[in-house]
Amino acid sequence: MTTAEPELSSRIWTVPNVLSFLRLVGVPAFVWLILSEWDKTALVVLMVAGFTDYLDGKIARKFDMQSRLGAILDPMADRLYIVATIVCLAMRGILPMWVVLALVLREVFILTMAPTVRRHNLPLPPVHFIGKAATFNLLYAFPLLLLAEIEGAAGDLARPTAWAFVLWGVCLYWLAGLLYAVQVREMLKVVRARAV
Predict the structure, then answer these.
(1) For the chain, which residues score pLDDT lower than 50?
(2) Any stretches that span the bilayer, and where are they (predicted)?
């Protein structure tokens, strides 16, 4: 028995939407802070963004405030923070180019399957827990990499932990991509078998 997806309302002015909008507004400030090497303040902005991301989802589910606008704003804000963080950390020389390339190439790998999914009208495969674990690792890695740039005991302690999250995140990100390809191939087999 499958549970029905929650009905999305057309409401605009909800608490979760305001929180998502504030996160979006914070992206340019976050970029400026990182590039200006105001690492402590950038770290605070990133932590607030992460907390509001958790909070808006929790509020939306608990108080039945899920909306079509929120379904767009929330992932858009998440993606923008991830992209902004990767680009800015690479520009600062904190994140090596191999990490950037590994993450970009994985996205390209997923995109190569889009025409097949569209042509055969396949549903999007469900998000695997490995993909969620990869995102979790990367979202923890980036603030820790920023913290590692701050001199002192906190930075020294954060550095090895940050790199552990980076390495696990990249590996799991690719494993999730390969599992996505397997899911698409299996769905394609079913479609072709029905067509025979």
Answers:
(1) 1-5
(2) 12-35, 80-105, 126-150, 162-182
